[in-house]
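Appendix B, Record 12. Input sequence as logged:
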Amino acid sequence: MLHNYEPSLKRFIIATILCIGITILGVVAITFQLVAIDKLPSNFGVFGDAMGGILNPIIAIGAALLTFLAFYMQIIANEEIKKQFNKTQEDQHIDFIFGNYRTRLNLFINEFNNFNISYHNNKLITNINELDDKNAKKYNFVGLQAIQLFLIEFFRDKKEKEKNGTKNPRLQDSYMGIYLTLTSMIIDYHYIFISINNNSKLKDEYKKDLESLMTYIYYSKLIYIFEILLNESITKPLQDRIQNLKNYYESLNTAENS
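Logged structural output:
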């Protein structure tokens, strides 16, 4: 904003200096006339008064110019401080967004790694009360393997219910609740994926770090889950999100190998 005033400021300073210079030349000419040429002592008193009348305005103009320059430099300094403050605020906001993305992705990894299920007599159990004998032997699975086994069991149970005439499982069913949690995680991952790719303000090193983390999640966890989901009857929005992610990473892999 201040650079718009710089040409006018330069013209003002140049005009002021020229006026002062012309005035000084005039004083020199008068002094030379009175002292060097006329050499009349009677003119010295008049000359002193003239000098005072001429120099006082010059000094006043110089003082005003210096005051103006000091004021102008303060404006420039304030503007620079404002710019630095705004940049700091923007950097802090970008750091916060980066930290938020990274935290959510790490939570995503933890949710997958800590996902666990138990089997008893080739049947998935979601509650200890489903065991006839509380001390009965059960098999525990954790992480990606647990999620894969759960999805296989979920869709098997879903097809069985549909075959028996129960097409719409209740939301309070434990299977359905776990399934909705998993699909919500996939939707959240897709949202983060879109947000990162569309966020042009993220620093390059931040974007590379997040992209690396998302690539790890996709190839180490999601790709296996997507294969199961795409072969089952899932909602169109979920299918579109999965296909979008799959197409992106496949095209990325093709570009890297070409």
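The chain has six helices and three strands.
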